[in-house]
Design a protein that fits this description.
This protein is mainly beta. It is built from two helices and 42 strands.
């Protein structure tokens, strides 16, 4: 269950704004309260601003600002997907809940006091991973798009208050990604989907059925599908495992290729964030935000060593879900690093310098935390465990009994105090790990002085 402290944290999503629109550095901030949750951001109460719907295990919380508005509990399975939309034609939003129990899908409506279940559950037999509500035939009743954990997609059409299975993805082919958008501006949304075979196709509503409008096989298997919906007519992009980006749009009654170029740094999972660009997650580079140009990408910022499978934008900040269902924020960075010793924060006690991309710690201050002392005023002697080392300003070496041991960077003097690169501390029995995503240096003790 998500408890009250999480509500206080989550209200940040609904109240904070981007604090550094022009920031070129971003960092990771973990959100452990959300681990294992399914999340949906929507104005389900029709208040004019979004609420956060958080489902964890068998409970669902509706949250706004610092308040829990309502909850649903006692479901027969763990919640795996959420959607909102008008399924009943009453111009109000209902909640759709997918679970891992026989793929059961449940429906809830708000009666002004509480969320109550209505209608008959749909049993799809495999855990549901994706849900969206769209009105494909424009009759005022929402239809349901479902994808399960086997990559099988279905569309359930509404008819006189009931949902009926209307379309299913090709047997034996896994749906990689699916999106819904009115690509030609006729008022009827189309279904864009990709298969693991490298296929991308579009279905349109015509003569009371979903029929193929367009299809393509770009070079390579398809890693990502994104739709640029903030255009007069949307453009849809696919990113292949050959690092090729293809973009198509509707023009003069047909689909035309709008862009096609090689993007060697693009990640395997890509999202489009309106007014920001393409947010890419790469096994090699981590997270990068790119400005999409006609035939190239321009990187705006990068956060290494992170991954993502879902993104919830909030101004210039991004809540990210990764593949193990943990959540974290990507937020503008103030370029300040934190220093941890065995999990204890000593950032206030120890100064840090950043020079030419290298990190150097104040030797005198860190000695008080790591169990050694510094004497002298240049050269300096490092004392501990019956041994001592000697360091000098400008020297990229440590001296022990006349033996010089090389360092990655020279010792720097700042305001009369010595600063050493992080590999120096390995000589004192401390492992210094750099976490660039979180902008942390983590010191852990190993066994005492290496020397």
């Amino acid at each position: 269950m998500v408890r009250k402290p999480a509500a206080i944290l989550l209200c940040l999503f609904l109240t904070m704004t981007g604090t550094a629109a022009g920031a070129t550095h971003y960092m990771r901030v973990d959100e452990p309260e959300l681990e294992g949750a399914a999340i949906l951001i929507a104005d389900v109460y029709e208040l004019g601003h979004n609420q956060m719907i958080v489902a964890k295990d068998r409970e669902i919380l509706f949250m706004a600002q610092d308040e829990i508005l309502a909850s649903i509990s006692g479901l027969s399975g763990n919640v795996t997907a959420l959607a909102v939309g008008d399924l009943t034609g009453d111009y109000r939003s209902e909640l759709v809940v997918g679970t891992d129990n026989a793929g059961a899908v449940y429906f809830y409506e708000y009666d002004g006091h509480a969320w109550k279940r209505f209608g008959r559950p749909q049993y799809l037999w495999d855990p549901v991973t994706f849900l969206e509500v769209h009105d494909f035939n424009n009759d005022g009743w929402g239809d349901l798009v479902v994808v399960n954990d086997k990559g099988e997609a279905q569309i359930l059409m509404s008819w006189e208050g009931e949902l009926y299975r209307f379309w299913q993805s090709p047997a034996g082919k896994r749906v990689v990604q699916l999106a819904v958008s009115d690509i030609n501006g006729d008022g009827f949304p189309e279904v864009i989907y990709t298969l693991d075979s490298g296929y991308v196709g579009i279905l349109q509503w015509e003569d009371q059925e979903l029929v193929l409008l367009w299809e393509n096989y770009p070079w390579g298997s398809i890693d990502s599908l994104v739709v640029l919906d903030d255009r007069t007519l949307p453009e849809w992009l696919v990113v292949t495992n050959q690092k090729m980006i293809y973009g198509w749009r509707w023009d003069s009654g047909e689909v035309v290729l709008n862009r096609h170029f090689y993007a060697p740094d693009i990640g395997e999972i890509v999202f489009y964030v309106p007014d920001s660009g393409l947010l890419s997650f790469s096994r090699k580079k981590g997270a990068s935000l790119y400005n999409l140009q006609s035939s190239a990408l321009k990187e705006l910022w990068n956060v290494p060593d992170v991954s993502g499978v879902a993104v919830f934008p909030n101004g210039r900040e991004y809540l990210v879900k990764d593949s193990d269902c943990s959540y974290y924020w990507l937020v503008p960075s103030d370029d300040e690093w934190s220093i941890m010793v065995n999990g204890r924060d000593i950032s206030e006690q120890v100064d840090l310098l950043v020079r030419g991309g290298s990190l150097l710690c104040n030797l005198v201050q860190s000695g008080q935390e790591l169990g050694y002392s510094v004497v002298g005023d240049g050269p300096w002697h490092i004392l501990g465990l019956g041994n001592y080392l000697t360091v000098e300003t400008g020297s990229a070496a440590v001296e022990l009994d006349g033996l010089k041991i090389p360092l990655s960077e020279p010792i720097i003097e700042e305001k009369g105090l010595p600063y050493a690169p992080l590999d120096f501390f390995g000589l004192l029995g401390w492992s210094a790990q750099i976490d660039r995503a979180r902008q942390q240096i983590n010191f852990t003790d190993r066994w005492g002085w290496w020397l």
